[in-house]
UniProtKB/TrEMBL annotation:
<dbReference type="InterPro" id="IPR006553">
    <property type="entry name" value="Leu-rich_rpt_Cys-con_subtyp"/>
</dbReference>
<feature type="domain" description="F-box/LRR-repeat protein 15-like leucin rich repeat">
    <location>
        <begin position="80"/>
        <end position="204"/>
    </location>
</feature>
<dbReference type="GO" id="GO:0019005">
    <property type="term" value="C:SCF ubiquitin ligase complex"/>
</dbReference>
<dbReference type="InterPro" id="IPR057207">
    <property type="entry name" value="FBXL15_LRR"/>
</dbReference>
<protein>
    <recommendedName>
        <fullName>F-box/LRR-repeat protein 15-like leucin rich repeat domain-containing protein</fullName>
    </recommendedName>
</protein>
<dbReference type="GO" id="GO:0031146">
    <property type="term" value="P:SCF-dependent proteasomal ubiquitin-dependent protein catabolic process"/>
</dbReference>
<dbReference type="InterPro" id="IPR032675">
    <property type="entry name" value="LRR_dom_sf"/>
</dbReference>
<dbReference type="Pfam" id="PF25372">
    <property type="entry name" value="DUF7885"/>
</dbReference>
<dbReference type="InterPro" id="IPR036047">
    <property type="entry name" value="F-box-like_dom_sf"/>
</dbReference>
<feature type="domain" description="F-box/LRR-repeat protein 15-like leucin rich repeat">
    <location>
        <begin position="258"/>
        <end position="358"/>
    </location>
</feature>
Amino acid sequence: MKQEAMDNSEESYISCLSDDCLLSIVSKLQSESDRNAFGLTCKNWFKVRNVARKSVVFHFSYNPKVYKEHAQCLAKILARSPYLKLISLAGLTELPDSALYEVGSSGTSLMSLSLYCCSGITDDGLAQVSFRCPNLVIVELYRCINITDVGLESLSQGCHALKSLNIGYCTAISDRGISSIFRNCRNISALIISYCRGVSGVGFRGCPSALSYLEAESCMLSPEGMLDIVSGGGLEYLNLYNLKSSAGLDSLGRVSSLTKLRFLNLRMCRYLTDDSVVAIASSCPLIEEWSLVVCHGVHLPGWSAIGLYSNKLRILHVNRCRNLCDQGLQALKDGCMRLEVLHINGCGKITNTGLALFSIARPSVKRMMDEAMSIGPPIEDLFRL
C-alpha cells in the first residue's frame, strides 16, 4: 500500500497479490516501533486513515497455505473501515457467511459489493448484507453457487436502489428469483443471468423499461420466456450467445419489438431462421453491432434483409456462417452503408472473387479474420461506481 495514494486519492485499494502482503500490513501497524515512528497509537492511525478509505479490493489467487490467514486479515480490515462505498472480494471461494457481518458494518455508505466466485456464501449471508446495506446499487454474485431464489428475494427486499446485478453461473436461481428482483428493484438497468439454466424467461414478465442491458449466454429460454424478456421494451444490449431451446423452435423473432436495440449478440444461435433475421432487421433500425457467428440458419433472404434495413450497422460478425454465399455478401455490399468493420472467416460458400468484389466496392470497410466472443461496450463500465 502506498501512503501517498491514501493521502491524495479518495479511493484506496488493498490487494492480496502476495502471500504475506496483508499479514505484514496488520502486524506492522500493531507493533510498538511503527506506533512510535508515526507518533500515533495504532488505534488512532487506523481511525484517521479509515475515515478517508472508500474502497477495499481483494484480488485473491487461491493458495491453501495462506488462505485462512488472509481471510482473518480481511475481517480485521473490514471491521476498522466503517465507511466503505465499495467492497470487492475475488476468489475467496471458502469465504463463510460470518465474514459478511463485517461487510454489513459499512451500512448505508456501501454502494457496490462484489462476491465474485465466493462460492461459500449462502442465502443467509446475502440476507444480512442486504438488510444492513440498503443503498447497494451494484452487486456481483458470479459463481456463487449456493445463492438461491431465497437469497435474491432478500436482496430485492432490502436493496430497492439496485441497478446492476451479476448472477452468472448461479445455477440454483430460477424465474422466481428473477421475478422478485423486477418486482422490488424498478431501477435495475443491467442484469447478467448467463448459464442460469433454471431460468426460462417468464420471470421477466413486467420487467421495467429501465432494463437496458441483458446477458443470457447459454440459457434455456422458452418461447413464452422470450416474449417476457422483451416486454419492458428498453433493452439496448442483448446477448443471447449459444441460446438453448427446449422446444427446438426459433423464438428470436420476438427481439424485433426492441426498437431501442443497438447491440445484438446471436453467436451460435443454431435455431435462428431467416424469418427472425428479417423481422429483427426491419424493426430494429438502431442496431450498430450484430453478431451472427455460426448461425447456419441464415440464408440469402436474411442477408438481403440486413443489407436492406440495417442502415446504422457499423460492425457485423459473420464468421463460420455456412450459408453466407457470394450473393449474400453482395447484398451486404449494396446495403449497410455505415458498415465499418466486417468480421468474416471460415464461410465456405464465399469465393475469393466475391471477397475481391466486396473490397473493391467498399474499400473503407475493414475486413477482420478474428472471431470475437463478445461485442458492444465493456461490461466493466456497468459495474463501476
